[in-house]
Design a protein that fits this description.
Largest sheet: 4 strands, antiparallel
Helix content: 10-25%
Strand order of the largest sheet: 12-11-2-15
Number of helices: 2
Strand content: 35-45%
Number of strands: 15
Shape: elongated
Distance between the termini: 35 Å
Structural class: mainly beta
Radius of gyration: 24 Å
Oligomer: single chain
């Protein structure tokens, strides 16, 4: 049981039977990077041709540190492709980045959202075909003049019994032995309690009463 159910939900992980009670304070939730491109006239505007490359790692201020264990993803953009076509190609690339075209007051913008966790930040590189330029308008890296970083990727930060911990995901296993936590909100300065109760005796008594009633 979590005394403040808005902060987290808990389930047994099956590795062991937890006992007692624990204090849980969530200071921040894990988030994914959200990036918006510069504005285009419409979602059907052609964007040039070439290759877009997503590289993954940690974005911090004006710097990017690539995670070389996370393979980069190349996305081929054919001549005549529109902004909507690029969004569909990103979604179909298997890179773990989702994309859609937002119709904003400034025009049509390509919005890309990465997975939760600080190491899942990303940059977008463009290699243009010389005969069909324009793809570089979609490129983004920290400090570039094109595009807009709407949200940075970050890890979840929380405390169990006052001890600081982090997780790249809001689903946390074994921070409390035998328990999987799903963090859903912050409660800075107001720790909640995760507690356990074994209802075996109550269940046994109830089943005995049921059997007696049936007999």
């Amino acid at each position: 049981a979590v005394s403040n159910a808005s902060v987290a939900t808990a389930a047994l992980s099956g590795t062991r039977t937890p006992k007692g009670s624990y204090s849980l304070e969530v200071t921040s939730l894990a988030k994914g990077q959200t990036l918006a491109s510069s504005a285009f006239a419409s979602s059907s505007t052609t964007v040039g041709a070439g290759t877009l490359t997503l590289r993954f790692g940690t974005v911090s201020g004006s710097s990017f540190t690539e995670d070389t264990s996370h393979a980069a993803t190349n996305i081929t953009v054919a001549a005549g492709a529109t902004l909507s076509d690029v969004a569909a190609a990103i979604n179909g690339s298997g890179a773990g980045v989702t994309a859609y075209v937002a119709q904003t007051v400034d025009g049509a913008q390509l919005v890309m959202k990465g997975k939760d966790g600080a190491a899942n930040g990303f940059v977008l590189e463009a290699t243009e075909d010389s005969g069909s330029p324009g793809l570089s308008d979609l490129a983004w890296s920290p400090g570039s003049s094109s595009g807009q970083l709407l949200a940075g990727a970050s890890n979840a930060a929380y405390k169990i019994d006052g001890l600081s911990m982090t997780s790249p995901s809001n689903t946390v296993s074994e921070a409390i032995p035998g328990v999987k936590l799903n963090l859903t909100a912050t409660n800075v300065g107001s720790p909640t309690t995760v507690s356990f109760n074994d209802p075996s005796t109550v269940i046994t008594d109830a089943m005995n009463d049921l059997v007696a009633a049936l007999n």
